[in-house]
Design goal:
13 strands; elongated; seven-stranded mixed sheet; two-stranded antiparallel sheet; single chain; alpha/beta; 25 helices; disordered C terminus
């Protein structure tokens, strides 16, 4: 039997407190997310002890182990997910509710981390409006629980023992985490193999405390100060070294909470700090001064005992606050939400967890728990398969609006015609579409704002003789092949950029290239950096600002295309609305507390012109004097002289705060057809030769 460590409950309390404060007040506790890493270590340490000791004593049973895990995890999880589903019934639009349904299924199957890794692209809804997002860490832990007993059984058959092979596997996982984080931090964050080392290090510490194995008949674990069953090396228990270790661990933990920030390439090697902090505190033992006096304090012990339901409750409440009542959000309201989370956690612990713990020997509670989990899975699947249950919206205009907000189905991202034409090289592209089985005549290049034009162009009757090829990737700047890309997708952007440029130059039938992107312009207009990181080569070749680097890259890209006899049409980006589109129809849901009148669902033309002024200046400077290049300003179609509205009549022009809906795409396509028809009527050089003055098309 594993001896109780009150200080570990205290460490749990500190970890969950860090996560809560980070989620509620990220500016004040920017590194609080490392609390999850501490939880991983604690889980590995405790489960490692339990499984290893049961295997050594020949009493380990898979059914018993997984039944205990189910009784520990599923009851509170089921209650939280069902509560979120009921509240969201009255407050979410169909698209949002459909997304929640998919997350209910993933979370109940402990695959939330995999789903979030797939949604990490440009079109994923903001993470703070996903009430079940935080369950990614629980999914990783449960995946570990499934594999760890099998791993330990296999290792115990080795002659050399478990400790060193287990440590070696943990180090390999750490290495894979560092490499994957360097190339794709978003996916590394949710990857169980890249996260396994954090849990395995806890298991290694547990195994270290049991090594060498105590022969039968020797002193029991309780004979050691603090108990060897607690899983650390006995001589450290009552020593000053143990107290120093705990103090250093706490300082490392606090340093990460206040010193880290979400912009780090995380997890990677940065995650070693919270892992080391947790290992030091646990290894110091229950009798270390800090552990005995601080972490074992009754208040922290209570926090540790309710840490699991507290973790489950806090994020859905904060997320629903953001989703349903963002305009009313405030620090005081967030404190109230955290207080409500504590109250619900106490109710869950005393009303659900404790009663079930007393009935572990009965099969009836386990059966009820499993059936409840299946109910959640079924409900989530039903919500997803029925497109978010749109019948909840009684108002026809609201239903039409919400349809517009989800007007691009997944099937519009890629099609077989494009993939077959371009082959395996196009597999990494997020968007790959070919309008018909013919030689492409017009190619769309850029990020997601280029791809969204495809729908309207491919369905425009006046352009039925054209064949459109769209090869794009979200977050990839359009100056393709010139080394600019997002920090986390830089290698992908470079590969897609090189492929797109190669296809454009080596396909004789392509006469026109349409290029579009969404520039992210900071307050300092002289530093138009697109939110992207240049490669070292492009940075070294550019002594001026990154805006100058972008200008140089665009001109090089344009010269390469124009020199091959093609025509280049650059589309100025859409308005970026300073509010969520859902607020425009929020009044049609009873629990949607944020709503805007039709008159306020727009961006003023003055603000839009100010928003894009640096980008227009860059485009004109880069394309000045290049015959065959032109700029199309979609403001002539999407805006009036006074404002840029989100809707025209009953139809939404956008699916979110930036991207065009199918209606908006069709409107811009009609504007672009003039440009494309003029390109078809004559050679590339027929375009205006001075984009800075004459070729800003406003047709």
């Amino acid at each position: 039997m594993l001896e109780y460590r009150p200080d570990i409950d205290g460490l749990r309390a500190l970890a969950v407190l860090a996560v809560l404060l980070f989620h509620a007040f990220p500016a004040w506790f920017p590194g609080g997310f490392i609390g999850v890493d501490v939880f991983f270590v604690i889980s590995g340490y405790l489960i490692g002890n339990i499984v290893s000791r049961d295997l050594t004593a020949a009493r380990f049973r898979f059914a018993h182990f997984y039944a205990r895990r189910a009784l520990r995890i599923l009851p509170a999880l089921t209650v939280v997910m069902l509560t979120v589903a009921v509240i969201s019934w009255y407050g979410m639009f169909p698209g949002e509710y459909k997304l929640l349904g998919s997350h209910m299924v993933a979370a109940s199957l402990f695959a939330e981390n995999g789903l979030l890794a797939q949604e990490a692209g440009y079109f994923a809804q903001a993470s703070n409006t996903k009430p079940l997002m935080h369950l990614w860490s629980l999914s990783i832990e449960e995946q570990f629980y499934l594999a760890f007993p099998l791993l330990l059984i296999g290792l115990k058959r080795l002659r050399g023992g478990v400790l060193w092979p287990l440590a070696g596997i943990a180090l390999l996982s750490l290495l894979s985490c560092a490499v994957l984080t360097h190339y794709d931090a978003e996916h590394a964050f949710f990857n169980p193999l890249a996260r396994a080392w954090e849990i395995l290090f806890g298991a290694v510490l547990a195994e270290l405390g049991n090594w060498p194995a105590r022969p039968a008949g020797t002193a029991p674990a309780s004979a050691y100060p603090g108990g060897q069953a607690a899983g650390a090396v006995p001589p450290l228990r009552a020593s000053r070294a143990g107290s120093a270790m705990a103090a250093i661990g706490l300082l490392l933990f606090l340093g990460g909470v206040f010193g880290f920030h979400p912009r780090l390439q995380y997890p990677g090697l940065w995650a070693m700090l919270p892992v080391l902090a947790a290992l030091l505190i646990i290894a110091a033992g229950a009798t270390a001064t800090l552990n005995r006096r601080l972490l074992a304090h009754p208040w922290l012990r209570i926090g540790g005992r309710i840490s699991y339901p507290l973790y489950l409750w806090h994020w859905p409440l904060l997320s629903l606050l953001t989703l349903l009542a963002a305009d009313h959000d405030s620090p005081w309201l967030r404190l109230l939400v955290l207080a409500a989370s504590v109250a619900l956690a106490l109710l869950t612990y005393h009303g659900i967890e404790r009663p079930l713990q007393r009935q572990r020997q009965s099969r009836l509670p386990l059966l009820a728990v499993v059936m409840s989990a299946l109910l959640v899975t079924t409900a989530g699947a039903d919500i997803y398969l029925r497109d978010g249950l749109s019948f909840r919206l009684k108002d026809a205009r609201a239903a039409r609006y919400t349809f517009g907000m989800a007007s691009f189905p997944d099937s519009a991202l890629r099609n077989a015609a494009c993939e077959n034409r371009l082959g395996p090289a196009a597999q990494n592209a997020q968007f790959c579409m070919l309008s018909k089985a013919a030689e492409p005549t017009v190619m769309l290049i850029g990020d997601s704002t280029a791809w969204e034009l495809y729908s309207g162009l491919a369905q425009e009757p006046l352009l039925s003789t054209e064949t459109f090829l769209s090869l794009n990737h979200g977050l990839c700047v359009p100056f393709l092949g010139y080394g600019l890309g997002s920090r986390n997708t830089l290698s992908t952007c470079q590969a897609i950029g090189s492929l797109a440029l190669k296809v454009a130059l080596q396909t004789p039938s392509i006469r026109t290239v349409i290029l579009a992107a969404n520039p992210r312009i900071p307050d300092d207009a002289t530093m138009l950096d697109f939110g992207y990181t240049p490669t070292p080569a492009s940075a070294a070749a550019t002594p001026a600002s990154r805006g100058a680097a972008a200008q140089l890259a665009l001109r090089g890209f344009a010269e390469a295309l124009l020199g091959s006899g093609r025509r280049l049409v650059v589309v100025v980006g859409n308005p970026q609305f300073p509010f969520r589109l859902a607020e425009c129809v929020a009044s049609h849901l009873p629990m949607r507390f944020d709503s805007r009148g039709a008159e306020s669902c727009a961006l003023s033309r003055q603000d839009f012109d100010h928003q894009r002024e640096p980008y227009l200046a860059l485009l004109h400077a880069a394309l000045n004097g290049l015959a065959g290049a032109s700029i199309v300003d979609t403001a002539a179609t999407l805006c009036t002289d006074d404002a840029c509205p989100v809707a025209r009549g009953k139809d939404l022009l956008y699916v979110d705060d930036l991207h065009l809906s199918t209606t908006g795409s069709a409107l811009v396509a009609r504007q672009l057809q003039h440009e494309l028809c003029s390109a078809a009527a004559g050679p590339a050089g027929a375009a205006a030769s001075d984009p800075a003055s004459a070729s800003v098309a406003s047709k």
